[in-house]
Fold these 4 entries.
Entry 1:
Amino acid sequence: MTATVLNLNGESVGENYNVTPDIVLEGAKGALVEVVVVGIEKDGTIFLAGSKGSMNTLWLLEAGKHVLMRDELSDE
């Protein structure tokens, strides 16, 4: 079983947390050199924005996926 971890500086987030998007965005503000934002808008559509073009956005999404999967598997 994994512990719930929430670090608003962007280091890590754990399972079963629930904070507003604004809190997460404020926690990352000023700390990043590149960013991808993925979310769900109020009308249910997907919002996706990246700071360094579509190829870097895709790479960062895939790298983030790898980190999540690695961390999740290492906790088991």
Entry 2:
Amino acid sequence: MNVDVLHRLGEAIAERGPGAYVLTVSSDGRPHAVYLNVAWTNGRIVAEVGKTTAANAKARPEISLLFPVRGADDYSFFVDGRAAVESGGAVHRLVLTPTRAVFHRHAPAPDPNASCAADCVPVLQATAPLPLSPRPTRS
């Protein structure tokens, strides 16, 4: 991954603060969401997780993080990636390698031809990343 992309992603995560929902899928296909403190370390997102989240991530490593909105005009921030779990005793450390990240909010898409029908601002995608953080528009 490009160093500039990693830097922008790290800045976006730092701006949001440490709290995020970690979203995994259980063995019976149900979603499992927990709110945890996460940290950006060496181009990865890390968090200490519980036994259920660790088991889900080991079995189905494609997971997502959700940094929720902070106010009415704010964007949610989603980070998708592939997780690895390092376990030692009762401690489980989730290490997420980001594969996609996007700011998203419920509002009309600025570009009617965009793939997202809402106001979405990609930070990390297969093609060139866009700016670090969206600027809310005032109506």
Entry 3:
Amino acid sequence: MYEAYFQLRERPFALSPDPDYLYPSRGHREALAYLRYGIESQAGFVVITGEIGSGKTTLLQALLRGLDGQTTVVRLMNTLLEPIELLEAITIDLGIVPSGTSKPALLRDLSMRLVEERAAGRLVLLVIDEAQNLGLPALEEIRMLSNLETEKSKLIQIVLVGQPNLRQQLDLPRLEQLRQRITVSYHLNALDADETEAYINHRLRRAALGAPLQLRREVTDRVHERARGVPRLVNVICDAALVFAYAEERRGIDPALMGEVFTELEETGVLRPITATTTVPPAAAPVPVAAAPPLPVAAASPVPVAAAPVEEVSSFAEASTEERRVDEPATDVRHVPEVLEHESLLRAREEQIARRERQLVEQQRVLAEEYRLFRARHARDLTRAAVEPHGRTPSPATSAAAWPPLNGPAHAAAPARNAPPQPANLAASWPPPETARPTFWRRVKNALLGVPIAAVEDRR
């Protein structure tokens, strides 16, 4: 659109992560040096974090461009993956045709490929961008991948790049083993005012065909104040400023034009509106709480509450609420690790309770079935006891012999087919004939000589 008007090869403030436009600020130089050191020394995990739009992806592009041919790069951009999907994505990027769909098969194929790469003298580098989206199981799976090693070195080098909440996840007690393996870690801060001016004019020089367009310090200071030193927001504002200057046929950009750009971007929703109470965070790293000197209590003059009008108190409360809404996060970041750990413990407890409930339901079902069988068996025994005389339960042979009855006329006329043979006279065979009761000496003789003789006790 405006490239020919300003004599530019291309748009200097495009949002694509082009390493040709990487401005070597102090933070970016240090981050790049940390990355190269971690890869060349084959250290443990390398972790690089930074705010949204701070240039992490552009930094990675510059790093990967400078690697030699002895490095095989596996880069993951979409990190909303489960552990098994993470392994599949790594094997696919390495060009591995999996021999199976199970996790052991994927790990075996991956291990074989890593050994082949090491035998060929190549290093496998796994770069995971947007690593803050990984869940705790996926991070633990990545830690297990680092166990693939030889006696001298690792078979795979892992670099994690993400937003600041990645550090909060790594600080959880469940990831203590992973945190201990991190040997290189760096946080990429926002640009300060001097670096913002140099960043803007550096990109204009890189895209210029002739004499480059230069923005004055008063203009770049306004851009830095509005963008808070975030390179992506600087690109959005400067690209819109060039469009405005081209539409009004201006060869330069002044603070008045930049004010119109801010108003337009806020009205269209590209930039969030900024209020008078909003404070701009510094570009440098925040000072730790322990390093900040305590404020003397005696030096603070007490403010009488009664002297403040109701209108001022209400306006101050509204301003404080608006400031917290703009500047502060929704939750206190200091308690985020504790909240995440508490939620994981609650989920584990709920799963344990649900599993115990299922066990109790199964035990109740088994007891109910056993009670039903007991009742049926008890009823059957009662029925047999009522039918048989003297409470005796007939044996199968006796029952078969006693049925059908013998005194029926139909039975006498036509016996049933395949009926079992009936005894001649059951009444005559019971009770058995009485025998003489053996004497005492007869019993002693039988006991000594071992001659078994049936003894029929006299019932009289």
Entry 4:
Amino acid sequence: MSADRKLNRQEAAVGLCASCKSSRRIESARGSEFWFCQLSVIDARFAKYPRLPVLSCLGYERSREPGSTADTDA
């Protein structure tokens, strides 16, 4: 499976968290995957480990991926 295809499958399963600058992917010793919302540390409105897929989020900010040249949505 190509890297692009794998990323698209992950984005579909995880939702916005897959590309949010405030989320962090956590993998357990048993191989389970969780998405930690760093906004939960400073704002109780955000779940520490949100139910996936996240389709809407007030705190969402797209992270800049390596190689990205776009600064804004045009």
